[in-house]
Amino acid sequence: MGVQYLSSRSMSGVLFTTLVLFGVLVAVCIPSCKAQANFTTSDYENIQVALNLEYLEAEYFLWAAYGYGLDKLAPYLPEGGPEPIGVQKANLDNLTYDVVAQLGLQEIGHLTILQKKLGKYYFPRVQLDLSDANWAKIIDNAFGEKLNPPFNPYKNSLNYLISAYTIPYVGLTGYVGTIPLLQGEGAKALVAGLLGIEGGQDAVIRTLLYTVKDELVPPYKYTVAEFTDKISSLRNNLSHAFVDEGLEVPKSEGSDGLVTGNILSANNYSISYARTGQQVLETVYGTGNASIPGGFYPKGGNGTIALGYLKS
Ligand SMILES: *[C@@H]1O[C@H](CO)[C@@H](O)[C@H](O)[C@H]1NC(C)=O
Ligand SMILES: *[C@@H]1O[C@H](CO)[C@@H](O)[C@H](O)[C@H]1NC(C)=O
Ligand SMILES: *[C@@H]1O[C@H](CO)[C@@H](O)[C@H](O)[C@H]1NC(C)=O
Ligand SMILES: *[C@@H]1O[C@H](CO)[C@@H](O)[C@H](O)[C@H]1NC(C)=O
Ligand SMILES: *[C@@H]1O[C@H](CO)[C@@H](O)[C@H](O)[C@H]1NC(C)=O
Ligand SMILES: *[C@@H]1O[C@H](CO)[C@@H](O)[C@H](O)[C@H]1NC(C)=O
């Protein structure tokens, strides 16, 4: 009896102390503990969409410059994911080689920080198709005709830069679309930092192309600006939105409605366009449908969001 009496008294003492401690924790935690969630689950899932693109960029730039990619330069990053299909060293002049090598090495940094920050949400390299045949198909789709000879991005610097025009920009718009969805401070800091460099990469490629925008791309009858305008138009169609502009636009779309030159793609306020995760996938699959893989991703992307669409 005595023991039971004592123990139930100490039980209520423990309960009281627990309640007080809980109250203190709640009072302290509501303002500050929430802010310490640097990455929420949804943050990880949103950032996973971008990881698919970072793999593409890394392999495409590194191979073009060096003739090899992550497996040789950063073998800890692909985590056993399959080798890209058809990727090659490109025939680049010295300046283009110098620039593309830097872009590729930047991507090693991006993947390394993503591997560190995403932890178990990081996934192995996805299957990529970077073959010249696949590129030719994409460019044919942009022009709505079969180019003859088929467009080969690895043939020379100009062709390579035109092909590269298709890549960081989708990442840029994806990051712009992702940031408002993020909750954790760490996630926001990471994606803001990735966005800065992605925007810079796009600007570097566009600037190099801008210097020759009115020249024909041999042996075709189209200028560099026309290639970029067609590619952007295709990407708008695939995204079911107006989020993409080439190097020349109607005056009404130009900066402040005054110019047709369009060194950067932006809306009427010169603010970057955004793509949702779904629009990013629709675009890079080349199918206009995030449930139907294709394009650079013959088996689709990985991560919760991409897999969710692939299942539906
Ligand atoms: C390109 O770089 C190579 C190797 O560094 C050098 O030998 C060559 O002279 C350079 N070509 C031009 C046009 O600068
Ligand atoms: C997707 O990522 C998971 C790890 O998160 C991995 O186990 C799986 O094999 C990956 N799937 C594909 C198709 O790459
Ligand atoms: C959370 O992210 C911020 C911003 O990047 C960083 O300063 C801080 O150290 C991170 N906190 C933890 C617990 O990782
Ligand atoms: C995009 O769609 C519009 C409207 O259907 C069409 O006129 C245009 O040719 C398409 N552009 C490309 C590059 O697919
Ligand atoms: C930009 O403004 C022009 C002129 O007002 C308008 O015609 C055009 O549709 C606008 N573009 C976008 C993307 O909102
Ligand atoms: C996308 O493809 C899936 C699977 O084929 C289909 O069920 C769905 O209707 C398509 N969505 C759109 C918007 O076309």
UniProtKB/TrEMBL annotation:
What is the top-level taxon of the source organism?
Eukaryota
Tell me where the signal peptide lies: 1-35
Q: Which InterPro entries match?
A: Pigment-catalase-like (IPR052965)
Query: Per UniProt, which keywords does this protein have?
Result: Signal
* The name this protein goes by in its record: Desiccation-related protein PCC13-62
From which source organism is this entry?
Sphagnum troendelagicum
